[in-house]
Amino acid sequence: MKKYGLLVALGMSFLMHSQDSAQIQKEIDANLWKPFQAAFENLDAERLNALYADEVLRVTPGGIDTENLFKKGNEERLGRHRKTNTELRLDFWFDSRHTNIDTSYEVGFYRMTLTNSSEVQTIYGQFHIVLKKKAGTWKIVQDWDTGSILGEELSKHDFDKKEPIQFD
Using H for helix, E for strand and C for coil, what is the string for 84-100? Predict the structure, then answer.
């Protein structure tokens, strides 16, 4: 009987933790991911950079950035897109999310479509993001992304495995 009671208690604890995580993820979606997508699509580097912590570990195939140089890169890149009247659409979905009260590790896939008068370019990638809740606000503290996995370029086929997240 003691074993049964322990299993029930563990099951209830897991269920409550899952519900807490789901609620926290809804908060993250509303307060970080929805503004993140909007900042990209509005070519607003200032709003985008504000979603990152003061100290960020940013890793790409180009190397490791611990000096927040990527923020200046965001300003330059999004500024170029504004000057060339490029429209940007960012779609993404989560493959996994592990969340507790102040930390979340989120893995997913993205599709970025850039459209201007001369071309349409679509870029696919995978991201690994670590979020921390600092002073009541979720911030990105670690950001890793790549366009290939095991030497294979990510493609429409990879992205189309799930539907992109839709915000209300």
Answer: CCCEEEEEEEEEEEEEC
CA angle 17, 22, 28 (to 5 degrees): 125
Print burial letters for 60-76: b (CB count within 10 Å at least 16), e (below 16).
eeeeebeebebbeebee
Predicted TM-score (pTM) of this structure: 0.86
Q: Rounded to 5 degrees, what are φ and ψ at 33?
A: -70, -40
The two structure tokens encoding residue 19: 């519900």
**b/e string for 24-56 if b means 16 or more Cβ within 10 A?**
bbeebbeebbebbbebbeebbbeebbebbbeeb
Compute the distance between CA of residue 6 and CA of residue 89 in angstroms, rounded to an integer. Answer: 49
End-to-end CA distance of the chain: 47
pLDDT digits (tens, 9 = 90+) for 108-123: 999 999 999 999 999 9
